[in-house]
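agent> Task received from the user: take the single chain below, predict its 3D structure, and emit structure tokens. No templates, no multimer pairing.
agent> Plan: (1) validate residues, (2) run structure prediction, (3) serialize to tokens, (4) report one or two observations.
agent> Step 1 OK, no nonstandard residues flagged.
tool_call: predict_structure(input=
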Amino acid sequence: RIEGRKDGSLVTASAQTPNETAGEVARIMLDEIARLKAYGLTEELLTRRRLFLKGSYNRAIETSSGFNAITAGLLLHGLPASEVSHLVDRLAAVDVTAANQAVRRVIDPEQVTLVIVGNAKRILSDLRSVREDIEVIDAGRLDLSNPTLRAIRR
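)
tool_result: status=success, residues=154
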């Protein structure tokens, strides 16, 4: 499975919301992803993101579990573990043009997979207005270690 991540990218977005607003939040996320693809990042947004990443990185690097997680992420992307000491500087060096080239290459609103956890009876009708191809997996048949998310029956 590691090889599958080395050449590709994984972009995630998450939110916590009551069941009643799950559809609305999903719609907002998809709209924002489409907006990002269409218009890209501004210098101001990139600067704010750099500050967030630098702060997150500095907090994470202070713990052994954070250091290990960062190192594992580098290795998953085919980078040497020694990059851990250069990561903040490399992120700071990314300009808005390069960031937007990455956005255009990686972000595809049509390929977004939504994983929504909640009470299906309360959220399905609203979600169907966001996406028609909805798959419901009962909690008892969920296996987070399986790429299909479905437990293998034996």
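agent> Step 4: summary for the user.
Residues 114 and 135 are 10 Å apart (CA to CA).
agent> Done.
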